[in-house]
Amino acid sequence: MLVVMQAGASEQQVQGVIDRLVNMGFTVHRSTGVTHTVLGGVGPVEDFEPADFEVLDGVKECHRIISPYKLASRSFKPGGTVVKIKDVEIGGNSVVVMAGPCSVENVDQIEMSAEIVAKAGAKVIRGGAFKPRSSPYSFQGMGEEGLKIMRAAADRNGLLVISEVMDQSQLPLLCEYADILQVGARNMQNFNLLRAIGNVRTPVLLKRGISATVEELLLSAEYILSGGNYDVMLCERGIRTYETMTRNTMDISAIPVVKKLSHLPILGDPSHGTGKREFVVPMARAAVAAGADGLLVEVHPDPDRAVSDGAQTLKPGQFEEMMQQIRLIAQAVGRSA
Amino acid sequence: MLVVMQAGASEQQVQGVIDRLVNMGFTVHRSTGVTHTVLGGVGPVEDFEPADFEVLDGVKECHRIISPYKLASRSFKPGGTVVKIKDVEIGGNSVVVMAGPCSVENVDQIEMSAEIVAKAGAKVIRGGAFKPRSSPYSFQGMGEEGLKIMRAAADRNGLLVISEVMDQSQLPLLCEYADILQVGARNMQNFNLLRAIGNVRTPVLLKRGISATVEELLLSAEYILSGGNYDVMLCERGIRTYETMTRNTMDISAIPVVKKLSHLPILGDPSHGTGKREFVVPMARAAVAAGADGLLVEVHPDPDRAVSDGAQTLKPGQFEEMMQQIRLIAQAVGRSA
Amino acid sequence: MLVVMQAGASEQQVQGVIDRLVNMGFTVHRSTGVTHTVLGGVGPVEDFEPADFEVLDGVKECHRIISPYKLASRSFKPGGTVVKIKDVEIGGNSVVVMAGPCSVENVDQIEMSAEIVAKAGAKVIRGGAFKPRSSPYSFQGMGEEGLKIMRAAADRNGLLVISEVMDQSQLPLLCEYADILQVGARNMQNFNLLRAIGNVRTPVLLKRGISATVEELLLSAEYILSGGNYDVMLCERGIRTYETMTRNTMDISAIPVVKKLSHLPILGDPSHGTGKREFVVPMARAAVAAGADGLLVEVHPDPDRAVSDGAQTLKPGQFEEMMQQIRLIAQAVGRSA
Amino acid sequence: MLVVMQAGASEQQVQGVIDRLVNMGFTVHRSTGVTHTVLGGVGPVEDFEPADFEVLDGVKECHRIISPYKLASRSFKPGGTVVKIKDVEIGGNSVVVMAGPCSVENVDQIEMSAEIVAKAGAKVIRGGAFKPRSSPYSFQGMGEEGLKIMRAAADRNGLLVISEVMDQSQLPLLCEYADILQVGARNMQNFNLLRAIGNVRTPVLLKRGISATVEELLLSAEYILSGGNYDVMLCERGIRTYETMTRNTMDISAIPVVKKLSHLPILGDPSHGTGKREFVVPMARAAVAAGADGLLVEVHPDPDRAVSDGAQTLKPGQFEEMMQQIRLIAQAVGRSA
Hints:
The structure is a homotetramer. Chain A is of the alpha/beta class. Chain A has helices spanning 11-24, 50-54, 107-120, 144-157, 171-177, 191-198, 214-225, 254-261, 270-274, 277-289, 316-332; strands spanning 2-5, 27-32, 37-42, 59-63, 83-85, 88-90, 96-100, 124-126, 160-164, 180-183, 204-207, 232-236, 266-268, 294-298. Chain A has 2 domains: 2-64, Phospho-2-dehydro-3-deoxyheptonate aldolase, domain 1 (Alpha-Beta Plaits, 2-Layer Sandwich); 83-332, Aldolase class I (TIM Barrel, Alpha-Beta Barrel), CATH 3.20.20.70. Chain A starts with a strand and ends in a 5-residue tail after the last helix. Chains A and B meet through α2, α6 and α7 of A and α2, α6 and α7 of B.
């Protein structure tokens, strides 16, 4: 950590900060400049807030030099992580598509979805059994019954299952039926849930919160990794900005940024990223072009009748077209799909 | 709901939308204009997404006319809600201050805090027993022991207790020791937790998420109210913007906006709103001047030694000064404090 | 325009709004619903603010139905605009790359840049002769001398010239030397400048402001188009959000959104969009994959010595690599580059 | 400036950065830590971008220690600036209110406005003669005729005149008729205009851009100050966020932040800050409570008939009420109004 003292800070103020640093376990290097004294704190301490130093007498500003996450950082595993589930590898050469409806509604809908998804070349079927909704008056999901339907349809079509876990109490159920746990954007900083997921060994897809920074996303991944669950995948799904033409603003640049800072695979979710069906395909292409390891996409046999998220859900024909275009883009960036 | 058809929408497209509306239970009024046909849907249906209509063939745009929340809306209780807890009234004439440290650290710290808080005229002591932190390596709270310490100190000083509930599983414990449950910004859309809180009868302070709209805040309140827990208070604590001089941007205008849209009391939290001690007092004054029913403020006997949030925590002398200034501002807006 | 009256609005209030609408030249359609009366205003009036109606007595909300821009809208020219300059077509099948240094520094730098740019297959050289800088103490540009250098280097290498106009007074000079006028993000709503550009016949590239909506970008284009200058190209170059890993957040989704709403070509500027050299190439790929008609990119013979924007400027080798990758992506989306 | 080298940076890389710093005129202090080498650059150089160093080989990050503005910084004039114009002092003990319509429409409107404004105790009349509008089809202002009307009405009522300058070419006219030049949010970074204003001696009110940081606002003030025009006042008028209940989000915390960082007076504009008449008065109170030196407010004899900005313009009765409340708040914070 670097602490920059104010111009004209007194020797007593400098000493006060040094004492505080030493008490916390830092070794301190002092550099006395013409206008500013700079203190460098070196040591094993990571549990500190730079802001706490900035309010000390005589301090101008404070900078953290070592990133607050470790296991999630690229330097921990420079070659990158490949998450292997059965015969599917995420983070390897192949761009992996996970697709399906927002909510599990009934057997027919999921059977049809699984066929559409598998036929077009996706590897994982998605579908929500527990649906958190902004309004308490909305449909809330089929629960375990929905998971059973998903599992059966996936097995029949050679697909993996991804489904969202909303709460610690649902974890055993999800681990039983799903191959990948999804943590939604609203739960990205539900630290109790993250900790619990760190203790299971089912792979997890962690979605970025709508106002989370990339650093916060990596810190949330760290919660899971530090529990011993190393199969963590990240997902960019749009952040909240002032623009209203799209439901969220999909931060495509987060993809190369995560690639630089972390070894974890990163996927893109153009359905939530845009909120509008007509923009999903171009943004799916953009995500892959920017280096995404996969996509999470909503598709439904008849999206205009979907109980949730219909507006951002692709029709079967659109999905097939997307898969074809993605394949070409993946090749253009030296990958397969 | 109003559905505006595209210029040149065909009669078949118009009929398609009418059919969909009627199937959903709406009565439809049709108005054929020179360029655009407009359909008005009237009825008991509230569980719908305008976006789902905007993707139908021939539709240009769709507007929800009736707000998606009901019990939280001002029209439900035009006179406003006053939450009464023992002899404290929140939402009445008095501006109520809730203050204390970020985290419960030990008995002495809380005893000293309670004295500082009570002596300066605040009515409620705050303090966290369960601490969710962005980093898994940070201090995580004292748990039940912390709640006991708070309760004892509050009782000795004639104060109420507010403390944060992070998870359904903590609810029985919190209800036992605290007078007010706090729902933090990160849990504002943890709908399972909100639902559970709707089923208890302990008053609750619901904080706005850092990227939540006011409408989403009111929808989250609706979750609690619809369970039968009517003692809901709201709290503005800063939203995330591009400005970095403050940790968050405290949206003071949310105070009069909530007053207009809802009957629920609204408080301001200038500690989280600014993240920096030196800006807390002016923003506390601003919140009260804008019409806040109370404040939630961090104060600590020795904030530079606090285990968390020290940078935004007032020193005892600053807190007393704030209380004096708040009293004058409250009088200027026709209230007491 | 649709005016929705409040539930319980009096007949007098409804009549007041009708009178106001009629006075403004609207024909009014009235639809009396169970809870809300809705008034539809039809007519030639476009110069109005919906907000002005929302403050009238008894009004709940007001929606504009017809977009406030006309000449810029897709419906004005459904087939799309192709801007033709000498043998270059922007908005056609080919993805056109405009590249060069941020600032014109000297003859050698521009000569070298022009060679790099032309050799790699770009069609237009960029370079600023007038440099507006956030700090008054920074380098401010070479002025006319810089434009001459650009022109000569471009002619020698078969390139077009694009350069930024900062102020009306510079317009004659720019029109003399440049093939394309660039309007920077900070001037997107400099309406006096836009009006002046509408009166010349030099093609113009209009960059989106860092906090402009897509609608505002199209309204600014309308200023130019309404003056009779139809050769307008738009450019997405990043918007300001809370994320700090990139200098701006490049809103890739603005590309398909503009394609839907407008007939004007849209380019992407990954240099300003990211602010960091290492993210420029993936974001260039993403822009093309999302459907951009071209790119505006900073490249410099020795960017670490550039007088401005060095951090986001590609090295020659990186630029060549980008051009090769762009070519593959363009083919994948059915275009050439 | 502090340059932090990457862990494992080679001696050659460190030397490369040192050479670059020395070439730029910095004196370099080197501090070799266990994991990171830190270089401190001291010297007279201010025209540099930290980002340009972050792309050098082996560099991890770079921090600017000395703020890029000087004349605008608090340390340049610790006691604060009081702008004196005739008998009005802005930045002193008194909270000064500047009020009037958005646009000058005709003689009667301005005469009535001036009376309303003066009678209620405001000191300055505002009104726009040149109106930049988002749409090219909107009313564009009365020009010089409007300024004459303003001047006459102000003189008759003992008021000062503030009016907006949109373009260098209007500067002589504005300086002739107005006591204070207003620079609008859209021109905050129109550096040519700022430079021109720096060369006149008419006081200026500089409004913060809707996506400008406080640091950028101070840099823009620096442009004016560095030209020798020291009578600069700043104005917070709302920033763009995702919240749509208000037109902008008025960043009240910018008031104490500016007070800390700069010696220049800071005003609040609750009309543009909220965009809605009903929220103007509470936000005016909040601004004064937070320490604003004055207010800029829109009032009109009949705002529902105003040609522009009617929705955010106070009615005469509301304005009088605001003035009374402001007076009480000013007293509560130890000032007068």
